[in-house]
Amino acid sequence: MELVSGYKWLITAGIFSATLSSALASLVGAPKVFQAVCKDRLFPYIHVFAKGSGKSGVEPHRGYILTYAIAAGFIMIGNLNAIAPIISNFFLLSYALINFSCFNASFANSPGWRPAFKYYNQWAALAGALLCIAIMFVIKWWTALITLALVTFLYKYIDYKKPKVNWGSSGQALTYANAVRFCAKLDTTEDHVKNYRPQILVLTGLPSDRPDLTWFAQCMTKDVAMMICGNVLEGDEIHFQNKQLQREQNNKWLSNNKIKAFHRVVVYPDLRQGALALMQSTGLGKLRPNVLLLGYKSDWLDCLGKPEVENYVNVIHDAFDLSYAVGLLRLPGKGFYRERKGAGTDNNGLEDDSVGKRLALSNQVESFESIPKAVVQYRSDSGQVKVLTVPEPGLLVSSNEQIDTSRTASPAKPGEPSPAMRRSQARRSQARHNAVDTESLFCKDKRMTGTIDVWWLHDDGGLTILLPHLLSLSSQWRGCKLRVFTHGSSQKITSERLRMTTLLHKFRIEFSSVEVVPDMNHLPTADSIEKTDHLPGWDEARQNDNSKQKLLRQIRRGELIRQHSSNAALVVVTLPVARKKECSPNMYMSWLEALSANHVVPVLLVRGNQSNVITFYS
């Protein structure tokens, strides 16, 4: 450069000036950037450099010392030609990433990206990024590869860890734009049976309160289809204050347990209206649920004469009317509420079963008016003090709202928890929402063994056999083989078994055996009838022979299932369907009770909407 310059001393002065300004900028700027990275906790073991000091308390003095040590170490090498390619490559890569970020933000058409530079052009930014990469390889190709490999490793590490920070990145804007574009494209594509996926709307209420139901749905949809957790808040307008908080809590629980699902909260006076709203409005375009999954209402006998039973049965009817398939999951000997350790206990260490049940959620049996309430004061975002009546315990208390639960309208009545007890329950409930679930029957850490027994009793389009097949593909159920049971006459057992075996082979469904049960239309034993004598359906059956025959048929099927599938890991049975006007809610629940009661294994009652979901053709 001195040879072509008119004044050699200008070149020397320029080099010194550029070196000094770049060194000072790096010495001051790099520690601040590094401090921001440490505050976001993007990488382990570096949070000690996040602490600021000085008069303002934000100066990264520790970062200054680290930067000085690194710079001194490179200077001590004593060979500028040895370190220049490495330093130049890192600088060029940073410039390339800045240019590409500008291009990416423009390409995503984000409204928040508004560059002020008059002559900015997105294609010039892309060209600048590519030129920086090319120059890196021109300087020294092996240092360029090392630099790219190191930066790629750091990026993939952050992408894997998914730190809880939000920078409003251009990648987020591009993801949104791509999602909208692909949803619109999918909406114009005609459905085909080969591409059918069970997109499940599962009425979990709070997913952390019904982890077994949540995990079971996840086993069928993981990496295959969409899953939406529906939560119906039974109440009035005050629950709108709590929708956003519940959504955040539930999304956090789903994220902590690595469950790929969306969550939707609606507020309606009762379960049926809320479930109907969810089924009609949830989803976007073709990304809509086509299967409704509920927990079996195991306490329905305690709700006779109340609207809860009728609402529950009507939810099933509404689902079929809206062309949904329906699944009911029943666990042996209990409902779906599973208290965590340290949650829901009183001062004496006794488990408080009402902690989770006090909220009127999806399968709740109590009405909103019967839930214990407390009058609380809180300060809104505008600073105004408001008074609300909220359910116990403090599940719905936002960390952003300054709620004082100690100010009740009246002292606690005998038998009711004290204000201190309520706050303690609220803290335990919050911890339960944040916890990683490891105790549920179907959680990811459990490995199921045995068989999945499929009682394929009616042609429903193939969903009864498809869902167990998808279950067997998940990591939790991979050790379970399918056993298929079907009915047939005693004179044609061999031909019926051959027909079903051929059918399953054509569908490419893996199974271990096919069993034909010939005596399914026989009358149940007297012992089985006696065990179901308490069901309210018998009052109607004794007055109508047709209703009696249908009830006896379900009792017989339940008897055979207990006889043949007592050692299975899961029993899948075709769900019986009743006509609305010909079968009362009590009679229909008696059918389901006779079919699924007294089993020692989980039972899934499932029925498709008569649309084909499997095909011979690949």
Shape: elongated
The major beta sheet can be summarized as:
10 strands, mixed
- Total strand segments: 12
Uncertain segments? 339-415
Helix content: 40-55%
Structural class: alpha/beta
Side by side, the strands of the main sheet go 3-2-1-4-5-12-11-8-9-10
Give the overall pLDDT as a whole number: 80
> How many angstroms separate the termini?
69 Å
Order of helices and strands: HHHHHHEHEHEHEHEHEEHEHEHEHHHEHE
Task: Report strand %.
Answer: 5-15%
If helices are DSSP runs of H or I spanning 4 or more residues, what is the number of helices?
18
The value of Rg in angstroms is 32 Å
Plain-language structure description:
The chain is α/β, with parallel strands linked by helices. Helices cover 44% and strands 12% of the residues. It contains 18 helices and twelve strands. The protein has helices at residues 8-39, 61-75, 80-107, 122-139, 141-161, 170-187, 211-221, 243-256, 271-281, 307-321, 354-357, 419-434, 463-473, 493-507, 526-531, 537-541, 545-564, 585-596, and strands at 200-203, 227-234, 262-268, 291-295, 325-330, 373-379, 385-391, 450-455, 480-487, 513-517, 570-574, 603-607. The protein has a ten-stranded mixed β-sheet, sandwiched between helices. It has a two-stranded antiparallel ribbon with strand order 6-7. Helix 1 packs across helix 2. 33% of the residues are buried.
Task: Please sum up the structure shown.
The protein is α/β, with parallel strands linked by helices.
How do the helices and strands line up, and which of them pair or pack?
Layout: H1 8-39, H2 61-75, H3 80-107, H4 122-139, H5 141-161, H6 170-187, E1 200-203, H7 211-221, E2 227-234, H8 243-256, E3 262-268, H9 271-281, E4 291-295, H10 307-321, E5 325-330, H11 354-357, E6 373-379, E7 385-391, H12 419-434, E8 450-455, H13 463-473, E9 480-487, H14 493-507, E10 513-517, H15 526-531, H16 537-541, H17 545-564, E11 570-574, H18 585-596, E12 603-607
Parallel strand pairs: 1-2, 1-4, 2-3, 4-5, 8-9, 8-11, 9-10, 11-12
Antiparallel strand pairs: 5-12, 6-7
Helix pairs in contact: 1-2, 3-4, 3-5, 3-6, 4-5, 9-10, 10-18, 17-18
